[in-house]
Amino acid sequence: MDERTLHTVLRAVTRAERILIVTGAGLSADSGLPTYRGLGGLYNGLTEEGLPIEAALSGPTLRRDPALCWKYLAELGRACRRAAPNAAHHAIAELQRRKPGCWVLTQNIDGFHRRAGSPVERLIEIHGDLEPLRCQGCGAPGGDWDALLDAPLPPRCGVCGDVIRPPVVLFEERLPEAALETLYREMQVGFELAISIGTTASFPYIVEPVLQVERAGGLTVEINPGVTALSGQVDIRMEGRALDIMSQLLGHTLSD
Ligand code: APR
Fold first, then answer.
1. Which one is catalytic: 89, 90, 113, 127?
2. Could you report the per-residue pLDDT of 132-143, keeping only the tens digit for each?
3. Suppose 27 and one of 23, 47, 139, 218 were both cysteines; which one would form an S-S bond, judging by CB atoms 3.0 to 4.6 Å apart?
4. Which H/E stretch holds residue 237?
5. Does 216 or 46 have the greater pLDDT score?
6. Distance CA 30, CA 52 (A)
7. Which residues line ligand 1 (CB under 6 A)?
8. What is the number of domains present in the chain?
């Protein structure tokens, strides 16, 4: 990455009070988690049952064939629990600690932003989270992942016998109202700088917040080794892995 670009973004990060950091699976790729699309992505192939993963991990499948849905939910759960936040998650959390106007909008359900110390009141988990597990029928607590992964699937509620599930947004399910309201509220306040990290920007609620910063005259940056739906619309594209770029970027900023 050329020094001029790094300096421009460094200056923007240092000066901005209101910063929106939008993150996707690519941020956790450096923690060893598979992305959904692109090289090695979960969604590139079909499941053993010949289904697209979006069908296996959908709300209707959880209702119709909970064992099938839970086969792939358990895979996601296992992968996330075996991995850990990387230095880029920690750098983002440190930036948020220094800048009360710095927010994270994440599509990731791995919980790594929380584990890295991002303040939960400024973390919008638009696709939910893997915890707390709850019964989808009566809402009773569903225990923890370690116990669940050792027991037969699908996990069933000890109170009513219905299926236990994580608070993630499965395909064909609605986004969490509270997260959307928070996002729209903060978009109304506005941001001077938006940084998209490790996402194909496949959804309007991910693209629109970045484009709104652009339209309002703020600076928009994308950090990604690949080209995405946002690449041609942001002011600055930093081509590379999140871990490398964020370490350079926030390493300088945070050392001041
Ligand atoms: N650093 C930065 N970006 C990376 C890295 C890396 N080390 N490795 C891969 N990428 C980029 C890829 O180039 C790609 O653009 O991360 C992106 C991953 O894209 P997706 O797999 O589509 O993940 P994401 O954009 O988060 O998907 C959004 O889709 O299916 C839903 O719920 C799922 O939350 C997910 C959402």
1. 127
2. 999 999 999 999
3. 23
4. strand 236-238
5. 216
6. 25
7. 24-26, 29-30, 35-38, 41, 107, 127, 198-200, 202, 224-226, 228, 241-242
8. 1
* CATH number (domain holding residue 246): 3.40.50.1220
Active site residue 127: yes
Q: Are 167 and 129 in contact (CB under 8 A)?
A: yes
Q: Can you give the residue range of the structural domain that contains 192? A: 3-32+85-129+174-255
Per-residue pLDDT tens over the stretch 5-31: 999 999 999 999 999 999 999 999 999
Decide if 143 is inside a domain: no
Residue 219 located in a structural domain: yes
Atom of ligand 1 nearest to the CA of 30: 7
Mean of the pLDDT values across residues 154-160? 96
135 annotated binding-site participant: yes
With beta carbons less than 8 A apart as the criterion, state whether 20 and 99 touch.
Answer: no
> How confident is the model over 62-94, as pLDDT tens digits?
999 999 999 999 999 999 999 999 999 999 999
What's the CA-to-centroid distance between 153 and ligand 1, angstroms?
28
